[in-house]
Amino acid sequence: MRTDTAQPVRLSEYRAPDYLIDHVDLDIRLHLSATHVRARLSIRPNPLGRPGAPLTLDGDGLSATTVLLDGGALDLGVIAIGPERLTIAEPPRKAFELTIDTIVDPSANTQLMGLYRSGSAYCTQCEAEGFRRITYFLDRPDVLSVYTTRIEAEKAQAPVLLGNGNLVESGDIPGSSRHYAIWHDPHPKPCYLFALVGGDLGSIHDAFTTRSGREVKLGIYVEHGKESRAAYAMDALKRCMRWDEEAFGREYDLDVFNIVAVSDFNMGAMENKGLNVFNDKYVLALPGTATDLDYAHIEAVIAHEYFHNWTGNRITCRDWFQLCLKEGLTVFRDQEFSSDQRSRPVKRISDIRALRAAQFPEDGGPLAHNVRPDTYLEINNFYTPTIYEKGAEVIRMLKALIGAEAFRRGMDLYFERCDGMAATVEDFIACFAEVSGRDLAQFMRWYSQAGTPTLKATSAYDTSARTFTLTLAQSTAPTPGQPDKQPLVIPVALGLVGSGGDLPLTTPAPHEDGGASARECASGVFELATETRKLVFHDIAERPAPSILRGFSAPVKLDLDSPAEDLLTLAARDTDLVNRWQAIQTSANRLLAASVATIRMGDVPAPDARFAEALASVIDAFAADPAFTAQAISLPTEADMAREIGVDVDPDAIHMARRELRRSLGLQLQPQLLKAYEALSTDAPYSPDARSAGARALRNTALDLIAAGDARTGADIAMRQFQSAHNMTDQFGALAVLSMIPGDQREQALDAFYRTHAADHLVVDKWFALQGLIPEASTFERVQTLMQHHAFTYANPNRLRSLIGSFAANLTQFHAADGRGYDLIASVVLEMDSRNPQVAARLLGAFRTWRSMEAGRRLHAQAALQRVAEAQGLSADVRDIVDRSLA
Ligand code: 0A1
Ligand code: ZN
Description:
Elements: E1 9-10, E2 19-29, E3 35-45, E4 55-58, E5 64-69, E6 72-73, E7 79-81, E8 85-88, E9 96-104, E10 114-118, E11 121-125, E12 145-154, E13 160-163, E14 166-172, E15 178-189, E16 196-199, E17 202-209, E18 215-222, H1 231-248, E19 256-262, E20 269-270, E21 275-279, H2 292-307, E22 316-317, H3 323-341, H4 344-363, E23 375-376, H5 385-402, H6 404-418, E24 422-423, H7 425-436, H8 445-448, E25 454-462, E26 467-475, E27 490-498, E28 501-502, H9 518-523, E29 525-528, E30 532-537, E31 545-548, E32 557-560, H10 564-573, H11 577-600, H12 609-620, H13 626-632, H14 638-645, H15 651-668, H16 670-679, H17 690-709, H18 711-724, H19 728-739, H20 744-757, H21 761-772, H22 779-786, H23 797-808, H24 811-814, H25 820-833, H26 837-844, H27 855-870, H28 876-886
Parallel strand pairs: 2-12, 18-19, 19-21, 22-24, 25-32
Antiparallel strand pairs: 1-23, 2-3, 3-9, 4-8, 5-6, 5-9, 7-8, 10-11, 11-16, 12-15, 13-16, 14-15, 17-18, 20-21, 25-26, 26-30, 27-28, 27-29, 27-31
Helix pairs in contact: 1-2, 2-3, 3-4, 3-5, 4-5, 5-6, 6-7, 10-11, 11-15, 13-17, 15-17, 16-17, 17-18, 17-19, 18-19, 20-21, 21-23, 25-26, 25-27, 26-28, 27-28
Zinc ion binds at residues 304, 308, 327, 330.
């Protein structure tokens, strides 16, 4: 394991590799604890590198049994071999071949990086730096090679042998119980996209004909007996293949596309060329085992990995600083796909929620970093919401700024110009600058400046002049290492909502006071590129309610001076559904913030009748769009409130304020909620489509609010739903409601659920997760007891995340006033670190908001972090996170 002495890697120090590896010929003989790897590497000096430089190949925990140069043994004085590198001081100045034999132990690999075992299968994970755990290599994304892989294994143990690219040969090995398969991938790729799988797996097969008429064989490999659960993933795969042809003109480029689902995986999935490996939770679904949300995630992750074939694989990253080049862009692409398959505004709302829940706290805390970082200690710690989700927001803003048509032309140019390259963000942005004729130099700051900007909007209406003046101002608070911030280019999509709908946006000419360009007025997207900008709208006959940042046109915090009535107007009438939802959220945030303050003064908050009325009208109109209604009546979460409050956070006061608001709304709105609940009840067979899922979402959200208002009524309905449900969405929705109501009924329902689903690990994960989230003091003991449950294990990342990860996301209990929540997580991180540093480091990220807590909690959090920091032999992963968290 790499330990905590890692040296920083800096973007400014990038140098082209001194050597290139054109061909990689692998012969991998799979054995449980001693797999033999022979790598034949065709190496040549890079004309762009330093002539005569030593050749240093990366390793991680390796030892070589043989090293041959052009078939001959190497002198010990010429070569140095250690676990972390293999160096040849004076390699030939012309092309040569290096043959390296290594032996690795997949069964002992608990880090799940490199070659490891998941269940009874062999599989690999090489991004970011896992290939160096298989063989010595130039493990960097700008070294692209053509791979041929021969895989050999016991036929009984691994009848299925899969590799990248196309299958060229397979057969038995005469006189032995073993067999082999040879795979060839004609597309040069970096080693992080290498993969192999060997195992006794079930599979389903299908085919896809590309628009140019090529047939691609599709296969999804799963545990035996789970084949029927892969059907939805297969359907999603075919839909996203078609979509990429239509939306981006991208066709698939091999004869086969295989997906393998494994249950031990550090992340969601991996886009290895032609052989995607998935965490099985993003593949397996049946109505009785997966919720609507699971189905939506499967669709999105299948699409995400598939879309990487162009954005990531055909065009890869020059170095790991450019990670957002593939990840932000590919998230943007999968979001667009899901929007087209489902409801665009509802998808946008859930993406906004996710961004605020995960990325905003990262950007506002000690782990804040640029969308393109300048430096890193451990690259595995940069698979973050900032790289992924904020990275996608940056692409979305680019599209808003230059328009859909120029955006598409820019993408076309990028695919044409950079195909086969290891590219940079500059290469990408240059394509859009070229097609749009715009100078995007300032836009690049989105990549190099961390922190969430605040956009402050103030407005004034002049009745006699019939003008409406909107002043926009931006500011970004300092982040670690960046005390001074520069203005960004912020696209602000705007509407002025009058009594009869949107008012025309007419301003003076651009150079005049309050002016804007014709393009801005026509598109409704105004650019804030300086610290402040004033916009004056003419011929405004009545005071409008400004709808600012429609569609959440930029990843900023909006500070609005709009009066409560304006928000209610928007909640009722904004043509932009995202802002209609946002107006309700903003109203709720204001009420909740006031309640928290009241509670902390020792008083009782008063209910707000107007807000309840606004929600009542939203619920009354549910039939038009149940999925939207479900989002609209879901109040900000406790974590949302903590973020809004920002400093001196008291989770217990937040919990009380939210509980009180939900109690009063649940009671007042009970008739409307019951009506919607009943109206949406159906005996129709389960279908995961967006409309049916939306109906279930609203029913479950309504039930949740009913129970918040009146626990007895809610529990009765939930129990009935729990017992009669014929799909997991309804069953788990009911269980989630019951889990919030203390008493025997809850325990019985939890027991019954476990007994029914004990054999299904993905459902058992849900059972663990639900219990870690209960906002009660007894949850601490419950979690400790569950850690002794025979189904709990540190060895499986999903299982660890389900119980411990959910507890770490439980605002009141993780941040318990006596610090025991912090201690528990710190202890689990330390326990986990020697086994799987990536998962340990990610869990430690739960502390990212510790400085925003009130003083008592802050001290406890700091002490827990210090305990981690002082531990001996920490991994580089945890060392990096703990040091940044404490800095
Ligand atoms: N590139 C993958 C994410 C990923 C990154 C690292 C991994 O190592 C354990 C695994 C997957 C994606 O964006 O889906
Ligand atoms: Zn990705």
